[in-house]
UniProtKB/TrEMBL annotation:
Pfam families: DUF7405 (PF24152). Residues 53-66 have a biased composition (Basic and acidic residues). Residues 36-47 have a biased composition (Polar residues). Residues 36-66 are annotated as: Disordered. It comes from the Archaea. InterPro entries: DUF7405 (IPR055828). This is Deferrochelatase/peroxidase EfeB.
């Protein structure tokens, strides 16, 4: 994609297209677009020979847990975390030794550590930041990787085929990757530059020399991109029913404080990978035509619960503020709601899987409209949790069960509108172990 091809395209659409395409030509075009935008917004953007200078990172200040993003995310007026707009998930095949050599570990360590130096960690900890100019990323290792290098699969890391079977889905949709690299930012060129650096496609990244890459240890086996943000789904997707201000394609905001558990809750407590977490990475297809055949009130009841009204929630959920409004009483009332209203809400059902403190067991880490899904609207969903069993429990809670067998499929939450295209399960170790771990 050449820079002049952006003429006449809204900047956000152009950046999304560049991120979806990937590669150095897209990076060059994206850099020019975003450099101009940041400069027009009054933000300082210095230039090197080939790229703008975004805020650099301080490796000494980043958290040890790769998944600890909470303090480095933008927050809205209600205190909810706001996911960065752009997401890239790269599936990786392992091509290294079994077991990994010290040289290979050093190579991976230096490649990942370069990103910590090249870009600030998210907002850099600026509590009042309105824009994420940095990079947040995680590398996660699949059960296949541990088997391939002759190591034991860590406890709590369930193979994706088993996860799919446990939640009533086809195990043929399991990821075949040995690892995944998950990266997110509000700036598309930050993602493209980081990805290009890791795979030896550029000589410098944000002004720093690229002296080590993943080449020879990992190769790209797949790429999944997505986006989230106010107005983006309506702008991008071919569906006139999506509210203009909706950040997601089903029309409602997500990530309320009450359904996002503390990061400590999703962190591995003990064992060789204490301090890390597990990643559930999924791509779904959503039947938006059938979803929007309903009234806003019906969609409100199915997304939240029958006790929620359209007026109380607002067009895209903005009236709820920082809390989804789902209580333990709503959970206790599920059977009665099924009988009285002939309907049960998604958030209401999922809340059955919360812990004794009524905290959710999974933390949605990144999500967004999937740019790489054809034949319908796609959705990227990536959560972190202490064990994959926590993800399974939460996903099973979405399914129909004994007290709603008589309800039509479309009246028990949102599962009937979703089709799973891929699922993977991964271990995200702490930075101390993120370079080719073994048990």
């Amino acid at each position: 994609m050449r820079p002049d091809e952006s003429q006449g395209l809204p900047r956000r659409s152009f950046v999304r297209a560049a991120v979806a395409i990937g590669g150095t030509s897209a990076l060059t075009a994206c850099l020019e677009q975003e450099q101009n935008k940041l400069a027009s917004d009054g933000q300082q953007v210095a230039s090197t020979e080939a790229e703008p200078e975004f805020p650099r990172g301080d490796p000494e200040s980043v958290p040890d847990g790769q998944h600890r993003w909470g303090e480095y995310l933008v927050r809205d007026a209600h205190g909810n975390t706001v996911p960065p707009q752009q997401l890239v998930v790269v599936g990786l095949d392992y091509e290294g030794s079994a077991p990994p050599t010290d040289a290979e570990r050093t190579q991976v360590e230096q490649s990942l550590a370069l990103l910590d130096r090249a870009f600030q960690w998210g907002t850099g900890g600026n509590a009042g930041a309105a824009f994420n100019r940095g990079l947040l990323f995680m590398i996660g290792y699949a059960p296949k990787y541990f088997e391939q290098v002759g190591a034991s699969v860590p406890e709590g890391l369930t193979p994706p085929e088993t996860v799919l079977e446990s939640v009533g889905e086809d195990p043929a949709h399991a990821d075949s990757y040995d690892a995944v690299l998950m990266m997110t930012s509000d700036i598309g060129s930050v993602l493209l530059a980081a990805e290009s650096a890791l795979f030896g496609e550029v000589e410098t990244v944000n002004g720093l020399p690229v002296e080590s890459t993943l080449e020879g240890v990992f190769s790209k086996a797949g790429r999944h991109v997505g986006y989230i943000g106010k107005g983006l789904p309506a702008d991008k997707l071919d569906n006139e029913d999506i509210p203009e201000d909706a950040p997601l394609s089903m029309g409602f905001k997500s990530g309320f404080r009450d359904n996002l558990p503390p990061e400590d809750r999703v962190t591995i407590d003990d064992g060789p990978f204490a301090g890390g977490t597990t990643i559930a990475s999924s791509t779904l297809r959503i039947d938006l035509d059938r979803w929007y055949d309903q009234t806003h009130q019906e969609r409100t009841e199915e997304m939240f619960c029958p006790a929620h009204t359209s007026d109380e929630v607002g067009p895209v959920g903005e009236k709820l503020g920082g809390d989804s409004g789902i209580t333990e009483e709503d959970v206790d009332r599920i059977e009665d709601d099924a009988e009285e209203y002939g309907k049960i809400g998604h958030t209401q059902k999922v809340a059955r899987a919360r812990d004794d403190d009524f905290h959710a067991k999974i933390l949605r880490r990144t999500e967004g409209v999937a740019d790489t899904v054809t034949d319908g609207a796609g959705f990227q969903f990536n959560s972190i949790q202490e064990t994959m069993a926590d993800f399974v429990e939460t996903r099973v809670a979405m399914n129909p069960d004994e007290y709603d067998d008589d309800l039509p499929a479309e009246d028990h939450g949102i599962t009937d509108y979703l089709e799973t295209l891929r699922r993977g399960s991964y271990l995200a170790p702490t930075r101390d172990d993120w370079a080719l771990p073994v048990v």
